[in-house]
Design the sequence.
């Protein structure tokens, strides 16, 4: 895992992804990045929704997911 820096979100809600990270992830103009809101943190996954689901599926077992989902008390993030 590589730390690529700390960045500030603009007034318009935009975040600039540095060139080094874009090159590492193979992102070009119009490249998709999935934003996964995990409540206490946000995960950026290059490649869009399918890539995010594949990655999360390899990292989070059904058991771990069930335990984590049971602790969510934010109605916007609740699993229904």
Sequence:
């Amino acid at each position: 895992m590589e730390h690529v820096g700390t960045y500030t979100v603009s007034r318009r809600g935009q975040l600039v992804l540095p060139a080094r990270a874009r090159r590492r992830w193979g992102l070009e103009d119009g490249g998709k990045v999935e934003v996964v809101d995990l409540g206490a943190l946000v995960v950026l996954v290059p490649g869009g929704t399918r890539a995010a689901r594949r990655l999360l599926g390899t990292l989070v077992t059904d058991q771990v997911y069930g335990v984590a989902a049971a602790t969510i008390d934010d109605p916007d993030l609740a699993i229904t």
Strands lie at 33-37, 42-46.
